[in-house]
Structure formats: C-alpha cells, structure tokens
Amino acid sequence: MPSVSEVIATLTGAAEQDPANVQPVVRTAGHLTGTTEVTLKAGRHTVVVDEPTALGGGDAAPGPVDYAVIALASCQAITYRFWAEKLGIALDDVEVKVEADIDLRGWLGLDASVRSGFSAVRIEVTPVGSESADRYQELADAVDGHCPVLDLFANATPVERKVAVGA
Asked: What is the pLDDT of residue 53?
C-alpha cells in the first residue's frame, strides 16, 4: 500500500498532466432484497442498507441516513489525514463525531414545510498530536475547504433523475 505522501504526489502529477485523470465517476447499483433491505455494489464491494424496525425494516444494516453521517465522518477523518500530510502537520489520530437531526414528517409527507433531509448537522473533530492549537485550526480550515462529503452536505449538487420503466 502506498503512503499518503506517495498518493498525493501521484494524484497531483496525474492532475497536472491532464485534469481528466483525477475526475472519476463514482458508481453504485443495487436493488431491494427485502421489505426495506437494499443490496448495492460499489466497485468490488457489496453494501447492505436497511431501515430500523421502527421504520418497517429488519435492522439488518445501517439505514441510508446512517450511511450519510458515516460517509461524512469517515471522509472528515481521511481528509484530515491527507491535509495533515500536505501541510506538514503531525497527526497521530483524529476522532470524528457526527450528529444529524431529521424530522420524519418530511419523509412521510405529513408536513410540506418540513424538509425530508437533515435539518442540522454537527461535527466534532478531535485531532491528536504534538501540534499547537493554531496548527490544528489551520488543518481544520483546510479540511473544511476540501472534504468532498462535507461539500455535499454544505452545497447544493445538481441531481438528474431518470425513471427507466422495465419489463
């Protein structure tokens, strides 16, 4: 496995050669395998998603909104690792906690004034290492500007949906 420095150097070189080299399309596809259970493939990985019993599921796996906060927390940790390396900031570990508020009345269509998604998201990051508070704040600012999943949460993303009616 290459080091973080090697990955950064390789990706930077590829981007400088041609920006298309670092513009992958991320894909997943799957289908219902139970009442609310969904099995998806992402690359060579299989992921199961389900709802808790309170939402009619079998609680076989985390739910979609759980995966959303998991994606945010993990992307934060990884982006901290990469940007610490880029900035030369010592980072022995990083703990990330994410909480998100959701009002199910929006999802259920019970109140048109309530959005279906999260109404608030809180992230608490604890970097561990020998740097000063100012250096870790510099790192946090860099991560805030570059974390792809944080960007998804913080900014509107154009979405195109197509319904393909099959046989």
From this structure: 96
Please tell me the distance from the alpha carbon of residue 102 to that of residue 109, in angstroms, as a whole number: 13
Provide the domain count of the chain. Answer: 1
Identify the pLDDT of residue 167. Answer: 64
Question: Rounded distance, CA 29 to CA 36, Å?
Answer: 16
Handedness of CA 82, 85, 89, 91 (dihedral sign): positive
Q: How far apart are CA 155 and CA 167, in angstroms?
A: 37
pTM beyond 0.90: yes
Given this model, what pLDDT does residue 166 score? 77
- How many Cβ atoms from other residues are within 10 Å of residue 19's Cβ? 9
143 lies in some domain: yes
Task: Report the CATH number at residue 121.
Answer: 3.30.300.20
Q: Residue 131 corresponds to which tokens in the numbers above?
A: 């740097």
In a domain, 50, yes or no: no
CB 31 within 8 A of CB 37: no
Answer whether residue 101 is part of any domain.
yes
110: containing domain: 62-155
